[in-house]
């Protein structure tokens, strides 16, 4: 019983570690997932690594590459923009419905972390982990497991999209996340929805700028009017 429990714990640990490598772009789209190399890097035996790879393939993060190997899935532009549009609808609804349900101390802690990470000059693992916390907070406080799963899957698609992040996006993320949190703290549901939709549309617009060879303007905090 103990041995099976240990194997299950190792498989879960391998899954968490490998999915983090993918979703924080340490393993970018198209990267080959080499079982032996990952086992050595994560200091976990090959069997749990193999189980984690099969699980992530079933969830769509990894795709079959040849007869026995896997690679990180690459997302094409059309899928990225379609996923962002659906996120507008679902995440806008989630944040609006969450009014009065988010504890003040959770908002306070998130504001502190958003402000600190907004000073970074690039998107790193800490940035993406905080981003997950904020965007999944609202469906989670609604106790809507279906909404959590859908948003998580859509975020996975947009995260895997392979383009260099626009200049200043980390600072703009921070400003836009602050706008969302300010509206939630005020209990202003319409403003919260509008701030979430604006944030996602800004990401889409800036990615279009990158694809067309343009880049975005320096970050500015929007008026709270």
From TrEMBL:
Membrane spanning stretches: none
Keywords per UniProt: DNA-binding, Transcription, Transcription regulation
Cited InterPro entries: GntR_C, TF_FadR/GntR_C, Tscrpt_reg_HTH_GntR, WH-like_DNA-bd_sf, WH_DNA-bd_sf
Domain HTH gntR-type: 8-75
SUPFAM superfamilies referenced in this protein's UniProt entry, alphabetically: GntR ligand-binding domain-like, Winged helix' DNA-binding domain
Family annotation (Pfam families): FCD, GntR
Single Gene Ontology MF annotation: DNA-binding transcription factor activity
PANTHER family to which the protein is assigned, alphabetical: GLUCONATE OPERON TRANSCRIPTIONAL REPRESSOR, TRANSCRIPTIONAL REGULATOR, GNTR FAMILY
Protein name: GntR family transcriptional regulator
Organism: Acidisoma silvae
């Amino acid at each position: 019983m103990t041995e099976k429990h240990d194997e299950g714990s190792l498989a879960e640990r391998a899954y968490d570690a490998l999915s983090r490598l993918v979703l924080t772009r340490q393993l970018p789209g198209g990267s080959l997932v080499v079982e032996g190399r990952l086992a050595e890097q994560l200091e976990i035996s090959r069997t749990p690594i193999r189980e984690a790879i099969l699980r992530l393939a079933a969830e769509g993060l990894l795709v079959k590459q040849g007869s026995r190997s896997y690679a990180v899935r690459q997302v094409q532009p059309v899928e990225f923009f379609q996923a962002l549009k659906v996120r507008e609808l679902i995440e806008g609804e989630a944040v609006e419905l969450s009014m009065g349900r988010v504890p003040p101390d959770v908002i306070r802690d998130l504001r502190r972390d958003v402000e600190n990470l907004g000073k970074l000059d690039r998107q790193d693992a800490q940035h993406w982990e905080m981003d997950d916390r904020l965007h999944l907070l609202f469906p989670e406080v609604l106790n809507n497991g279906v909404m959590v799963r859908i948003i998580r899957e859509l975020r996975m698609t947009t995260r895997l999209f392979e383009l260099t992040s626009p200049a200043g996006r980390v600072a703009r993320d921070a400003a836009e996340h602050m706008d969302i949190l300010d509206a939630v703290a005020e209990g202003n549901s319409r403003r919260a929805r509008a701030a979430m939709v604006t944030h996602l549309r800004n990401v889409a617009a800036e990615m279009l700028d990158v694809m067309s060879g343009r880049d975005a303007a320096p970050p500015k905090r929007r008026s709270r009017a």
